[in-house]
Amino acid sequence: FISGADHADFVIVFVATGEDQTDRGPKKRITTFLVDRGTPGFTIRDGYKSVSHRGYRNMILEFDDCRLPGAQVLGAVDGGFAVMNEWLYATRITVAAMAVGRARRVFDYAVDYAAERKQFGQEIGRFQGVSFQLADMVTEIDAADWLTLASAWRLDQGLPANREIASAKLYASEMLARVTDATLQIFGGMGLMDDFPIERFWRDARVERIWDGTSEIQRHIIGRELLRPRGA
Predict the structure, then answer these.
(1) 141 and 46 together in one domain
(2) Hey, how many other C-beta atoms are within 10 angstroms of the C-beta on 57?
């Protein structure tokens, strides 16, 4: 799932370069490499087509006896986890921020539609079943917004932020799923028609709970960060 690799001059690859035995079992040593397009043994080919974020063109990277000099190492040999974590901190905050932005946009559609669409002689937003949904949606959006800002602030200040970033990514991505689904429900059948943008928001929201660490991974990180200081 390497998006944009067909346009890149080089790609960043994380490679297992050894293994250590720990009290929790084997742990792979990872090294980060810069691989230039055209390197012998390195091939880029078309990948799978996704229903989420159709603008992302996924590519598959293939390696066949591909050899790289030491100058292509990014960071230190066996230091790939440090590079990876620094990258994931930033991308997970970015995913959370994107989720908040998309949720606010699709929420605007929901509010406008609820204020304009009429059934039984009144705007559907006057029905408690709809207005309560809107209230829950905006509350969740604001909560995700503050979680994201707080985690970004901690990272910017150089404070420990692993748990906070995981919480922001987890909550914001799952919030986006709930908000887009609720908006589609408010639109009814028209929400599934490609004449309106709601179905695209709904499709695109699904991948946010998967890439840059699934929701399950984020929950694992949060639980680990809570228990590790207590020796568990």
Answers:
(1) no
(2) 16
Q: What is the pTM of this model?
A: 0.88
Q: How high is the pLDDT of residue 3?
A: 83
Give the 3-state secondary structure of the chain: CEECCCCCCEEEEEEEEEEEEECCEEEEEEEEEEEECCCCCEEEEECCCCCCCCCCCEEEEEECCCCCCHHHEECCCCCHHHHHHHHHHHHHHHHHHHHHHHHHHHHHHHHHHHHHCEECCEEHHHCHHHHHHHHHHHHHHHHHHHHHHHHHHHHHCCCCCHHHHHHHHHHHHHHHHHHHHHHHHHHHHHHHCCCCCHHHHHHHHHHCCCCCCCHHHHHHHHHHHHHHHHCC
CA 47/CA 52 separation, integer angstroms = 14
Looking at the structure, do residues 101 and 176 belong to the same domain, yes or no?
yes
Mean pLDDT by 10 residues, the chain (232 residues): 87 93 89 95 92 86 95 93 87 97 98 97 96 99 98 96 97 99 97 95 96 96 95 84
Q: Provide the angle, in degrees to the nearest 10, between the axes of the packed helices 162-187 and 215-227.
A: 140
112 and 65 in a common domain: no
| Inter-CA distances, 4 with 22, 93, 95, 98, 203, Å | 37, 21, 17, 19, 20
34 and 135 co-located in one domain: no
